Amino acid sequence: MNKPLNMATLFIFLLFLQVFVLNNILFLDSINPYLYIAFVFLYPLKTNRISFLFYSFLLGLLVDFFSDSGGIHAFSILCIAYIRLFFVRIYFRKITADYAFFKLKSESFGKIFNYTVTLTVIHHLIYFSFVNFSFQNLSNVFLNTLFSSIFTLILYFLGTYIFTKSE
Amino acid sequence: MQQLIYFFQKFKYFLFFLFLEFIALALTFNNLNFHKSKFVNSANAITGGFYTYTSNISEYRSLKPKNKILAEENTRLKNLLENNISIHFDKDSTLIDSIQYQQKFTFTTAKIINNNYAKEFNFLTINKGKNEGIKREMAVINSKGVIGITDNTSDGYARIQSILNKNSKINARLKHSNYFGTLGWDGKNYNIVQLSDLPRQTPLSIGDTIETGGKSTIFPEGILIGTISKINKGNSADNKVDVTLFNDMSNLGYVYVVKNFHKEEIKSLEAQNE
Description:
- The structure holds two protein chains of two kinds.
- Chain A is an all-alpha fold.
- Chain A has one domain (3-163).
- Helices cover 68% and strands 0% of the residues of chain A.
- Chain A starts with a helix and ends with a helix.
- By secondary structure, chain B is an alpha+beta fold.
- Chain B contains five helices and 14 strands.
- Chain B has helices spanning 2-10, 12-32, 45-58, 63-82, 263-273, and strands at 87-89, 94-97, 103-115, 121-126, 139-142, 145-153, 158-165, 170-174, 180-184, 192-196, 209-212, 224-231, 241-245, 254-260.
- Chain B starts with a helix and ends with a helix.
- The A-B interface holds A 19-20, 26, 29-30, 32, 49-50, 53-54, 57, 60-61, 64-72, 74-75, 78-79, 82, 130-133, 137 and B 12-14, 16-17, 20-21, 23-32, 37, 40-42, 44, 46-47, 50-51, 54, 116, 118-121, 123, 125, 159, 187, 190.
């Protein structure tokens, strides 16, 4: 399998899925899933992280272009892209030598669940804080984060369940 | 020097991360400022092109309500003609209103290809831009009332700051009296906007019609906005009332961009006085 090509396809697929389909869901008038962050979960671990950080930033920025939100998506996706390694170390107990062989699929569901939930909640919290952009209506920020995270995670796990080949 | 290189080597990911975060932050802050938002918006050729495709597809779903709105507008215009109020459209779509408010403005129709209403800072994108003579700070209205103000323009597309944007401030007044206030939005319900800074002695009752006042150099006078739906009793500094919009902002199709009504003249006059 050609890995860079796979990632490029994933990038474009997630971008278009987000801006043309998911941004228009507006469940109960305001709840949207932000599935494009799946890029951060699925991008392979490498010792050189410059390209990964840059692609994540670019994906966020392109979503911003379509949804007229300045640089909010770029900011929040870059945050989780940067701290991803920290959570990989905590939840999967990997060291630098293991990065090349690391595969999210081969890990146990409990670990993957913790990992994705943490990153999703952090991303959504940053995103909705910036959308709100004031210290008022904080309850709104937390409620939005909660509901959107649940929505995003359900879609992510359904998506991985469908697209993983049964072996 | 070696220490410096070592420092960069050690923290290169963190520094790169900070650099990109800084760009994102700068874009975010610029976007919140009406006069500085230039770079990241949906009014460029690529996003505009994509949005044209998708809106062409999704347009089919709302043909019925759109037709109904057009029919209503036709009835209203016919009634106006019947009543022999001197209002007519000449070849360049110039509306001359010589009885009610003595004003004249030209407008052009455009189609909304991207509509937001669920966020707190909402923007719309239309399919006309600089090529059709649309510039920054032009009023956007439709048959039922105000929509917003044009913000960024590219050759073929323009972005509109919706009235459903916390930064929007529009001069508005009561239709039956000349008391005026400022129309803004609190970011909660997309059907309800807030009219504030009305004088305390203003006679208010639920159902009063609100329209644009003539104090602005962007909006023509007398464009409908909505009706008063809630009056806050008590002593608040800004004396706010809730206004229910005539427009359903979640279901918009074609709009009119009001091009000019002696705006340049008024602005130059104001500049002279300073």
